[in-house]
Amino acid sequence: MSDIHVDGGALVRRAGHEVLRVEPWGPDSLRVRAGLHRLRDDLPGALTDPVPSTAEASATEGTGVIVNGDLRAVLDERGLLRFERVSDGVELLAEERAHFWWPGPRLFLANGDGSHRLEQRFRAHADERLYGLGQHTHGRLDQKGLVIDLEQRNAEVNIPFLVSSRGYGLLWNNPAIGRVELAGNGTRWVADSARQIDYWVSAGTPAAVLGRYADATGHPPELPEWASGFWQSKLRYRTQEELLEVAREYRRRGLPLSVIVADFFHWTALGDWRFDPAEWPDPAAMVRELDEMGVRLMVSVWPSVSPLSENYREMADRGLLVGTKQGLPFHAPWDDKGFPTELPVAFYDPTNPEARRFVWETVKRNYYDIGVRVWWLDACEPEIRPGHPGNLDYHAGPGLEVGCSYPVEHARGFYEGMRSAGETEIVSLCRSAWAGSQRWGAALWSGDIAATWESLATQVRAGLNVAMSGIPWWTTDIGGFHGGDVTDPGYRELIVRWFQYGAFCPLFRLHGDRDPRTPLGAEMTGGPNEVWSFGEEAYGHITEVLRLRERIRPYVMAQMRTAHETGVPPMRPLFVDFPSDGHAWRVDDQFLLGRDVLVAPVLTPDTTARSVYLPEGAEWTDAWTGTRHAGGGTVVAEAPLSRIPVFLRAGADVPIAPPEAAGA
């Protein structure tokens, strides 16, 4: 027996110990929560207060219905929820029992500490395509058929939000460690340890769903204009003078440069969060000189705290570090300065507001007050070794229950700190993210990736899934991170192609640990990684790409304003703008930058032409030749090493080709 009733506009079901609540949460959207005995409002999640909407709920004889805009949820007598599109009655998503007797669509298995292993099951559809879920290295755009771990790792970013070709989006509103299984016989979301089931569903086209998701989890800020330029980085500039000389050389050559990076080991000890005066004797003067050149300094800030740090004892005594359930409170080995071998280091706890304030106040005193305004929040998964999140104990709860939220809380601390200092232009480059990271000014990059053609192809799909996960600011290490011989002709070709792709990414950034690589430690520095490092031919092509990016920056900024206002990311799969084109849902090696620019990167060596699909519903013009094509078909586009195929929607005026070559 069950009781289904309406409570304050929400649909509520009580059956035995289970309580289920379905309530409106923004236009065309519903939030579903289920727990044992009661529901809690104090658990961590990504949802913000809902945008007001008009919804109607009703309950009769053991069943219930709630309608919010174009989304209807029907709750049957067995406690199964079915989500339908109101306009045509099509089923979008439906809960499904695992077995006719037990378990049902929702499973609670007690862990013995008040938490449960939770499972939520939905019906599978063979023709369904699924996108989003953060950033992964599996190389797929459509993730139907895959099992995705819901855990943060370097280059594996868990954002538990997906968009379906059936016309809905779903957020698993739970930062617990777990997985999602997108199988042929059903979809199953699993949390290894949590207190209640919590998910959010929205109906609409992909663009509409992305907009509703931004409403529900936070819109990104407007990207500052300077951030749309070129970012120079390598592993690593060891001294103040070395970094300055690179910036000066860009200026001497007349090349555009917006950001240059002081990478790790610039500090005295991990967790001091300040420059080592032996290598950076006057960082304030460095920042002033860079400012005069129109260049921002970005500083690498890690969440790790060495026992050698001047801050360690105070942070430990005040409970600002992540705890452990067993063993000493250290979470990874590290080769820190002033120590002859690896030593264990801790991580600060960003789920603790007091810890966030302590880190920001230290960062402000040592970096911000000398003029630094851009933050590189590296290793913010956090990168624990061994990877035992269940042993961690956070201010917000046990590691298995809240561990995936670390990167979003870390970015939040810097956002709130910058706002408290009166800043409005806030960008933090992060190696990990979770649902809602976008509202804290988080820019995501794809982590420590290989310097190979296969890796470049993977980045295209990974970046598009990040876009479908609600993160509009994204970039890669142009050229890959791990390796790359700057004297090798094959690698030179790869980095030219990567630059050409990178110019159309939301953020345009060079980084990498080039050959000859050296062991991890305070003296390490990668090989040369400036745009003039790859030989004269490559340099000529790369500088043309830099100029291309400068030409399209006004267009890029217009797309960033759209992302801020609507939640639709600047870089996106073709189907976001052409949802009625069935073929557009299958294209995974092209993308749109805004509505008017279609980009087809070259992803294989020795390639001078490639096939390009032009979506149905628009006419397209080859940006290099001016040739016009009807949409809805495939063309073969020329792709000499000097360019990749780019097409403009008919009527668009975006200066892809240099003025002297336009229409040639």
Automatic annotation (TrEMBL):
**Keywords, alphabetical:** Glycosidase, Hydrolase
Tell me where on the tree of life, at the top rank, the source sits: Bacteria
Q: Name one Pfam family in it.
A: Gal_mutarotas_2
Give start and end of each Glycosyl hydrolase family 31 C-terminal domain: 567-652
Specify the signal sequence span: none
| Ranges for domain Glycoside hydrolase family 31 TIM barrel | 220-557
List, alphabetically, the SUPFAM superfamilies matched.
(Trans)glycosidases, Galactose mutarotase-like, Glycosyl hydrolase domain
- InterPro entries reported for this sequence: Gal_mutarotase_sf_dom, GH, Glyco_hydro_31_C, Glyco_hydro_31_N_dom, Glyco_hydro_31_TIM, Glyco_hydro_b, Glycosyl_Hydrolase_31
Q: Does the keyword Kinase apply?
A: no
Where in the numbering of this chain does the Glycoside hydrolase family 31 N-terminal domain appear? 27-177
Q: Which family does it belong to?
A: Belongs to the glycosyl hydrolase 31 family.
**Designated name of the protein:** TIM-barrel domain-containing protein
